[in-house]
Write a structure and sequence with these properties.
The radius of gyration is 17 Å and the shape is globular. It starts with 6 loop residues before the first strand and ends in a 6-residue tail after the last strand. Helix 4 links the parallel strand 4 and strand 5. The protein has about 250 residues and is an alpha/beta fold. It has a seven-stranded parallel sheet with strand order 3-2-1-4-5-6-7, with helices on both faces.
């Protein structure tokens, strides 16, 4: 168990990559705080974890609310007394071409996908510094590496997350804290359920491996980076894209 007894907070844990990461971490021995807006879906993940014999709590958290974030961290400390891993996975999309994008669309994506990462990390960093150890994992994207049509706001946020990662790796590395980013490509999550089959096929054709990735494959990357096996990886932005370059 590569994450045995590591206390881990995972935002956006109710669905998709966040859910798969939570289940993977539990299978690897971690104790997990699940954070998401969706109470019902959180309960489902919590039930799955308990079936696995795992140790977890669930917190309804909007990453735009510092009060809710701080409460999540305090609940984690009250339960286990430390925080070893933070996975900043929560995020949204609100796509539009630049000429049609509204300020509300831009601001909402930045507030959740970028500033949410800042808020959550600020809430745990002093704890990790006090411990002399920790791993912060930030969800970027292939769009944060290459940009993408119709995603000015999302690209800005995901580029920014890589900037956070590089900066915090320099600041926090000397204090025993590693900071890395994961850049997923096209992943088969429920977000794709409303897309026409033709569009999904076009996505698959762009990937050299000729298929979409799975949430479980992304969870494997997070689990490795959170583990002591990745003890010399710091400040990296790991592409998990099947080779796609937008």
């Amino acid at each position: 168990m590569r994450l045995k007894d590591k206390v881990s907070i995972i935002t956006g844990a109710a669905n998709g990559i966040g859910r798969a990461t939570a289940l993977k971490f539990v299978r690897e021995g971690a104790r997990v705080t699940l954070a998401d807006l969706n109470q019902s879906a959180l309960n489902d993940v919590l039930a799955d974890i308990r079936e696995l014999g795992g140790d977890a709590i669930a917190c309804v958290v909007n990453v735009t609310s510092q009060v809710q974030i701080d409460d999540m961290v305090q609940r984690t400390l009250a339960r286990w007394g430390r925080v070893d891993v933070l996975v900043n996975n929560a995020g949204i999309v609100a796509d539009a071409r630049l000429q049609k994008m509204t300020d509300e669309q831009f601001d909402r994506v930045i507030d959740i996908n970028l500033k949410g990462v800042y808020r959550c990390t600020k809430a745990v960093v002093d704890i990790m510094v006090g411990q002399g150890s920790g791993s912060i994992l930030n969800a970027s994207s292939v769009v944060g590496l290459y940009g993408n049509f119709g995603q000015t706001n999302y690209a800005a946020a995901k580029f920014g997350v890589i900037g956070f990662t590089k900066t915090w790796a320099k600041e926090l590395g000397p204090k025993g804290i590693r900071v890395n980013a994961v850049c997923p490509g096209f992943i088969a999550t429920t977000i794709l359920d409303s897309m026409p089959e033709k569009v999904i096929q076009q996505m698959e054709e762009k990937v050299p491996l000729r298929r979409l990735g799975t949430p479980e494959e992304m969870a494997n990357v997070y689990a490795f980076l959170a583990s002591d096996e990745a003890s010399y990886i710091n400040g990296a932005a790991i592409e998990a894209t099947g080779g796609v370059m937008l």
